[in-house]
Inverse folding.
C-alpha cells in the first residue's frame, strides 16, 4: 500500500490504516518527542498525544509538502504544549549572555553522550537548543512556538551552549585525571 493510500484510509478513520501509520512513523516520532521531553515516560506520553492529534487532524493534510515533516511538526508542538502552560522561560535581557560556539572533537564523544548531556539541560535551555541547533528553526520561529520574545530565545540558546561547554570541559578534565 502506498503512503498516499494509507493517508487516505486514515482520513476515512480506518483503524487498521491508523495502526499501519503508527508502525511506520512511531519510532521516528518517538525520537523527536524524546528530544523535547524531560524523560522517557514523558516522551511516550507525548508520542501518544501526538498520534491522537495526527489522527484527529489528518483530514487537514492536503498532500502538499512532506508528510513526515507535517507529522514531526505535530510531535514537536505536542511536546512543547506541556511547557507553554508552565512558566519555564525567564525573560532575559538579550545582552546579558554572549553566544559561544562549542568546539567538540567529534571522535572523543559518542552521540549517546552528547544527547545525554543535552537531555540534562534545564527545560527552557534544552527546548531552545533543540529547536535551533538540531531542527534548524530561527529565533523568530522559536519565539512564536514557545510564546517568548526573540531575545529570550537567543539568551536561552547562549546559556545552553555555555552549560554544554562547561559539561564537556569538566568531562575532559575528569578523563585527563583518570588517565594519570
Amino acid at each position: 500500500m502506498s503512503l498516499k493510500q494509507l493517508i487516505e484510509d486514515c482520513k476515512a478513520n480506518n483503524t487498521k490504516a491508523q495502526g499501519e501509520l503508527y508502525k511506520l512513523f512511531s519510532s521516528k516520532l518517538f525520537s523527536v518527542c524524546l528530544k523535547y521531553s524531560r524523560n522517557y515516560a514523558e516522551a511516550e506520553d507525548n508520542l501518544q498525544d501526538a498520534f491522537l492529534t495526527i489522527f484527529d487532524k489528518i483530514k487537514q493534510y492536503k498532500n502538499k509538502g512532506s508528510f513526515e515533516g507535517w507529522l514531526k511538526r505535530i510531535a514537536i508542538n505536542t511536546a512543547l504544549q506541556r511547557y507553554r502552560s508552565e512558566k519555564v522561560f525567564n525573560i532575559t535581557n538579550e545582552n546579558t549572555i554572549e553566544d559561544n560556539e562549542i568546539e567538540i572533537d567529534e571522535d572523543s564523544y559518542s552521540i549517546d553522550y552528547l544527547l545525554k548531556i543535552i537531555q540534562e539541560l534545564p527545560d527552557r535551555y534544552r527546548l531552545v537548543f533543540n529547536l535551533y541547533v538540531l531542527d534548524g528553526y530561527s529565533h523568530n520561529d522559536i519565539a512564536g512556538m514557545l510564546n517568548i520574545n526573540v531575545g529570550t530565545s537567543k539568551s536561552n540558546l547562549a546559556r545552553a551552549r555555555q552549560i554544554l561547554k562547561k559539561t564537556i570541559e569538566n568531562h575532559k578534565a575528569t578523563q585527563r585525571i583518570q588517565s594519570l
Q: What stands out?
A: Residues 3-84 form a domain with the Rna Polymerase Sigma Factor; Chain: A fold (CATH 1.10.1740.10). The chain is about 70% helix and 0% strand. The chain has two domains: 3-84, 111-179.
